[in-house]
Amino acid sequence: MNTPLPDVPEVRVVGLPQLTQGFDLVERLDLPMHLKVHGPLEPMSGERLAQLCEEISLRGRGGAGFPFGQKLRAVARSAIRRGVRPAVVINGSEGEPACRKDTVLLNRAPHLILDGALLAAEALGARTLVVAVTRNSTEISMRAALDERGLSDRRGQRLRARVVRTPERMVSGEASSVIRAVNGGPALPAGRRTRASDSGVGGAPTLLSNAETFAQLAVAARIGSRRYRNTGVVSEPGTVMLTISGAVARPMVVEVPTGVPLRYVLQLAGAPPVPQGVLTGGYHGNWIDASAVHEAMVSRESLAAVGGSLGAGAILPIGPETCPLGESLRVANWLAAETAGQCGPCRLGLPAAAGGLADVMNGGGPAALEALREVTGAVRGRGACKHPDGSARFFASTLSAFTDDLAAHMLHGGCGRETTGVLPLPPTGGQGAEESIPSGEKVLIDWTLCQGHGLCADIVPELIRINADGYPSVADAVVPTHLRGRAQRAVRRCPALAMRIERTAGAGPGPGPGTAFPAGSGARTRRAELPGFWRNELGIGRS
After folding, report:
1. Rounded distance, CA 170 to CA 167, Å?
2. If you average pLDDT over residues 337-362, what whole number do you get?
């Protein structure tokens, strides 16, 4: 199955639209139509804007849920202390295959997003606005929106605005990845915990939040906090954008007030009446079972109370006819392939965990399960970015949500159901477990030969991008196996013969066809394998 979601799926609304207002009139709200639908927007002082955010309890809608008012104040304090102009970044880098809410807003309501960002930029005295996107459609839409407002990156303008394209990868949407890409580097996590509010674009304090957050800010600034709080629950007022996919008749993006029962939203998309499980919050989120679905409402607090998460707003049910562990393994292999390759927990731990889940599914017994839990625990909290933590959360949730299936696989080698591929993944991902693990190879460039033709970046933009000097910049990461063919094609097509692929130090011969993950003599020897290479790298057993 594995049908990727379109950039702009069907859009529905429960109750009165706020972010999606005008979607019933046109496919894309250009500036004149945007002003007809939403009306003009008056500027606000920084203090008043921060108060508004606190009055409506506005949190970031990209997954972390950090209070936006606190972030706004932190940027202002840092800018004043350092005596520099801050920057504002709209993070539209939606690299997760199960998420399309920001892509929908960027394509259909670009000026609502710009309203919120420009409101913040004016309040902070910012002179730089950057929009980071991952897809062709969003880049085209946002460039057109900037043109419609007369904004550009030309010198001499009061506010310089530009669009930056990032690779469509999970790690590319992480805040430090976006900042590095905007600064001309690779779209990979920085590997150190530096707050954008202290040092971001060009080293200046930077207000970075995702597209929906800025759109929510624009709505609240127009209608006021009292009217905004009339929608949704008291503790989390307003609406949220959700992407509903998985085992549904109609994948869609829906705007819904907080407090609406989750089961109603699933019924709207044509989900099974009694789903076997629902993945909440996307591929860094948590599974909940059918009983929890009937209790949960659409809010951070309600979902957390039943073991779920709102996260990036992706909701994915699966039906009773598919193997939940098989579906989870497909996602686990994709998560392993999305590693930035910059730290042991991500580069080694996630492939090890994916392999451990495959061992459990293949009847490895309690020893394989124990080894999987050990690796997952070693990954958590030790990565250079949030990708290992989110992936470890997904693994732990899978093990706790499907205990009956886990027992059937451990003791009997299977549950008797097929893996149908209902969870969306990129076209090259999930076709076989061997495609999604690191290949043990890196792309290298001989700078004495490179002439800056740029063909390599066109062929495999996930690994190579063109820097400000017009020459390719290679991500310092192991090539995922599903990108191996394109990396080899980039090497072959280099006119200057300046590229090559080499195996990394300590890399083995690579996985063979049909191999879920390189294994030893059997699943039950997993504990004997871990203490050597992985245990040293991941720090398992260290005090």
Report:
1. 9
2. 81
Q: Which fold has domain 331-435+516-538?
A: de novo design (two linked rop proteins) (1.20.1440)
Contact (CB, 8 A) for 420 and 430? no
Task: Using DSSP bridges, classify how beta strands 87-92 and 206-210 pair: parallel, antiparallel or unpaired.
Answer: parallel
Span 303-325, pLDDT tens digits: 999 999 999 999 999 999 999 99
**Banded pLDDT at 511 (limits 50, 70, 90):** very low
Residue 279 has phi, psi (to 5 degrees) of -85, 120
**pTM given for the model:** 0.81
Are the CB atoms for 486 and 460 separated by under 8 Å?
yes
| Residue written as token pair 């989900």 | 271
DSSP one-letter string for 503-516 = EPTT--S-PPTT-S
What is the dotted CATH code of the domain comprising 17-227? 3.40.50.11540
Q: Report in angstroms the alpha-carbon separations of 192 from 85, 400, 415, 426.
A: 24, 31, 43, 29
Round to whole Å and give the CA distance between 483 and 462: 8
Q: How far apart are CA 39 and CA 44, in angstroms?
A: 16
Q: Which among 356, 388, 384 is positioned nearest to 371, based on CA atoms?
A: 356
> Can you name the residues that pair with 240 across neighbouring β-strands?
256
Report whether pLDDT(79) > 80: yes
CB atoms near residue 423 (< 10 Å)? 26
Phi and psi, residue 108, nearest 5°: -105, -25
C-alpha 255/C-alpha 7 separation (Å) is 16
* 436: confidence class by pLDDT, cuts 50, 70, 90: very low
What angle do helix axes 350-361 and 365-379 make, rounded to 10 degrees? 160
At 316, is the secondary structure helix, strand, or coil? strand
Within the chain, which residue ranges are assigned CATH 3.10.20.600? Answer: 231-318
Second CATH level (architecture) for the domain 438-503: 2-Layer Sandwich (3.30)
CATH class of 231-318: alpha beta
Decide if pLDDT at 28 tops 90.
yes
pLDDT, one tens digit per residue, over 462-472 is 678 777 678 88
For residues 419 and 322, is the Cβ–Cβ distance under 8 A? yes
| Cα 467 to Cα 490: distance, rounded to the nearest angstrom | 17
Residue 347 is predicted with a pLDDT of 75
The whole-angstrom separation of Cα 83 and Cα 402 is: 54
Q: Helix, strand, or coil here: 73? A: helix
Query: How many residues would you count in the chain?
Result: 543
Tokens of residue 300, six digits: 């951070």
